[in-house]
Amino acid sequence: MTTLRADRPARPARLSWRTRLRRDRSLILMTLPAVLLLVVFNYVPLFGLATAFQEYDPLAGVWQSPWAGLYQFERLLNDSLFWGALKNTLYLSFVQLILFFPVPIALALLLNSVLSERIRNFIQSVVYLPHFFSWVLAITIFQQMLGGAGALNQFLRSNDIGTWDVMTNPDTFALLVTSQVIWKEAGWGIIVFLAALAAINTDLYEAAAADGAGRWRRLWHITLPGLRSVIVLMLVLRLGNALSVGFEQFLIQRNAVGHDTAEVLDTFSFYYGIATGDYSYGAAAGLFKSVISLLLIWGANKLAHAFGEDGLYRK
Amino acid sequence: MAHELNRRSFLNAAVSAAGLVAMGPLLSACGGSGAQRAGVNSDAGLKAVLPAYVPNTAIKPDIPSVAGGPDVLTDPGFLGYPSTKIATVSGVPGRGGKYTAVTPLWGTIPPADNSFYQAMNKALGVQLEMKPADGNNYNTIIPTMTAAKKLPDWIQLPGWWNSNFNTGGLVGSQLADLTPYLSGDNIKKYPNLAAIPTAAWRAGAWGDKLYGIPSFSTGFKVAGVVFYRRDVLEAKGITADQVKSADDLMKLGKELTDAKSGVWAFDDVYRYIYTAFGAPLKWKVDNGKLVHLYETQEFLDAADWHRKLAVAGYVHPDALAGDNAGGNTRFYGGKTLIGGGGQGAWNLADLQSGQAANPNYRRGAFNFFSADGKSAPRVDMGQSTDIISYLNVNLKPEQIEECLAVANYLAAPFGSAEYTMVNFGVEGLHYTMDGGAPKPTEAGQKEVQAKTYPFLAAAPSAVNNPTGDIVTKDLTAWQAANVKALAKPVFWGMNISMPQAQATADAGQGVEDTLKDVIHGKKSVQELKDAVANWKSSGGGDRLIQWTNDNVLQKYGTGQ
Are B20 and A44 a contacting pair at CB < 8 A? Predict the structure, then answer.
């Protein structure tokens, strides 16, 4: 990696902003719509965070709603339901990190080793497809197949084997949702790894093979190091999103396994903030989540830099 | 004032939704002064303003109403469809005013400016622009409009969403006070509105003033009904009158469930049965003390009964997995034989959907019973309608009068010329008379959605299913058999508007979540008790009870 770093161009001499503006104007013009979208839909709504420090009333509006200081956060920290949701979120996130994160990498490696392009494209299309299904559809398919009245259990019942409770068992819920995520998203997740694999210089493999390196040695010494920066980047992003494990997936299955197991921070904000009209409380829960996420992503990025990786950006 | 729901106000609305309703006030400038709420209806105050009641007797029902206790009355039934369609309004009610109306629609939105709308505008003498919105998202569409203070001229605000819409805070500030136009004898200017029973106007009254115009009012409003597949159960020799207690119903679970062939006796029925255990709808007064549903033993008993039902395996697994949307499909397909629902489910469309799955299909309902089978059944009656429309506060007095004249046309009694026009359109163009009943043409099916104009104003409910008289007979007979069980609950028709903190406690999300787990057989009643204790102490429950006692019960009484 150190050799790579030496290849980087030296930082250009500082030009005046006027010169740079003239030089980059077409680029700036091109990014303008995206920046505008970001400002209108991501930054301006940040103003709504003020409601987390209020007793917000939609009819009075933000200007007229009474201020409540840190009252909503006090409520939050004393709410056992909130801590339950936080615990579930972290647990589910951890399980997904262990069981889901490596799957797209392994899948990409496998796919990369398939030589026939036609077969590779076919497999790729098949594993991509579920990503385009909505969660409602994905979970309906699971329910039709594995639910209490689904294909599997009706088969077991008609053969007097007893039934297997998959969809409504709180104890195995983490495995259920992780397998749903794998089924739906693993195919989509391989895209970025396939791109990284394509970028690895094939000469390296040929040279290694000529030197007598076997399949596993090549994987270990060429492929994985080539993927390392992408894997670390994805890991940093994943950690930053550790508190967002998904919303619809849990919203839909919350009644099936009960809120003790399926309540995550996002559904908590929805049920205890928006659905009951307690907007300030929901906003406080959302803000809490955002601050922790920011710390997580900052920490993970620091860690990546400490290991000499790029992380989110080059240092 | 023709307020347009144009692109800009839509953007306002969309943006305020995106920003947790934060942008609303930013765009519409800093207006408004804190949120005032209407308070509570009092008996004495209402008496002074409620409209006079002049029933319409021009069209006689085939099955007359049966009276129960005070304000309790079954809906009249009409068989077939009246052949002579009496006109109740002379001339056109409007004077060419231009208005926009927003109503929820559970169905396919008809094309804008279609031939039915044009015919209606001609008949009404106004340019009434109908903007039906998707009923399933209605509760999220309206708050964005109210936050931006951009309500249309005429809007339907279903009562079950009053706390979502904060209707108590909108009346007076965004919705017009109709008291000067409708109170007492003033309403006689609008005879069809005067034929709506007094009790229905209470549902749209806030803080002792009239705001809402009620549609489909009824003297027989119950939270829910326990339905059964009459064709299937009767074939097994089971009739409704054999079920007299909760135990009887539980026994049916064992008898009817055949999981191997994919048939379960029950769908989720908790909501439709908990009052049979003696639990109140929400409040009751015990020796002068205000008691919340959650505090009662009967609430726990009802949950425990349903828990046993689930644990015994008598409830369809999909229902236990929280899939309520598939309930009708399961019922039509015979996968479940007993399920709950509102009376609205019992109609011609239901008969047709059911018969499409099974030609013998017939819906039946169990009579109300008390869980122990001994005491007389008692069911808390709901307010006489939830379908209430409001006018915009910015309308001028002559505009309000014009809209009320239009409402008078829309509220023409069942079977009249105006009713037929509003519900079926123009004869020959939108419907033809077929075997004595109106049959929609292709244009009628596309353009005449039964629930657009009637959501602005409609006559009191009448049961009528042309070509499906069996449904009319079954439903009216069931109502007549149960009319004695209905009684007014505490705070009936008082429209309490509470501060946000109380409304949150009132929603009781933590208890409702645990309740679901219990009735699905996943938790014990003890855990429900713990959730209630937690709700009382840290969920605002005790404060809610105290607030309601101090601000409603002590000041205004029970309203019964």
Answer: no
Closest A-chain CA to B37: A59
Q: Parallel, antiparallel, or unpaired for β B388-391 and B213-214? A: antiparallel
Task: Check if the beta carbon of residue B157 is closer than 8 Å to that of residue B141.
Answer: no
Model ipTM value: 0.78
State whether B321 and A168 contact (CB < 8 Å). Answer: yes
Residue of B nearest to A145 (CA): B318
Q: Inform me whether the C-beta atom of residue B202 falls under 8 Å from chain A C-beta atoms.
A: no
- Its sign, for the CA torsion A131, A135, A137, A142, is positive
B56 touches A: beta carbon within 8 Å: no
Using alpha carbons only, how large is chain B's radius of gyration in Å?
24
The model's pLDDT over B420-429, given as tens digits with 9 standing for 90+, comes to 999 999 999 9
User: How far is C-alpha B56 from the geometric centre of its chain's CA atoms?
Assistant: 23
Q: Does A180 touch chain B (CB under 8 A)?
A: no
Say what the pLDDT of residue B364 is: 96
What stretches of A114-247 show up as alpha helix (H) in DSSP? Answer: 117-128, 135-146, 151-158, 173-198, 202-210, 215-218, 224-240
The SS3 of residue B285 is strand
Radius of gyration of chain A (CA): 25
**Helix (H) or strand (E) segment spanning residue B286:** strand B283-286
Identify the band that residue A270 occupies on the pLDDT scale cut at 50, 70 and 90.
Answer: confident
| Six token digits for residue B137 | 């998202």
Token code pair at residue B282: 């929400």
Name the 3-class secondary structure at B362. Answer: coil
Enter the pTM of the model.
Answer: 0.82
- Judge whether B129 and B158 are in contact, CB under 8 Å: no
The pair phi, psi for residue A312, each rounded to 5°, is -75, -30
The DSSP code for B277 is G
Out of A150, A168, A275, name the one closest to residue B509 (CB): A275
Cβ–Cβ of A58/B146 closer than 8 Å?
A: yes
Give the strand pairing for B283-286 and B289-292.
antiparallel
CA distance A81 to A65: 26
Range 232-291 of A in CB contact (< 8 A) with B = 252-260, 263, 271-272, 275-279, 281, 283
Residues of A in contact with B169 (CB under 8 A): 57, 59
- What's the pLDDT score for residue B504? 80
CB A177 within 8 A of CB A250: yes
Cα dihedral A18→A20→A24→A30 (10° resolution)? -60
pLDDT at B180 over 80: yes
- Report the C-alpha gap between B390 and B211 in whole angstroms: 6
Partner-chain contact A258 B22, CB within 8 Å: no
The C-alpha of A69 sits at a distance from chain B's nearest C-alpha, in angstroms, of: 16
CB contact under 8 A, B522 and A258: yes
Distance from A283 to chain B by nearest Cα, in Å?
8
Contacts of A172 in chain B (CB under 8 A): none
Cα(B429)–Cα(A187) distance, rounded to whole angstroms?
Answer: 54
Whether the pLDDT of residue A3 is over 90: the answer is no
For residue B326, what is the DSSP state? T
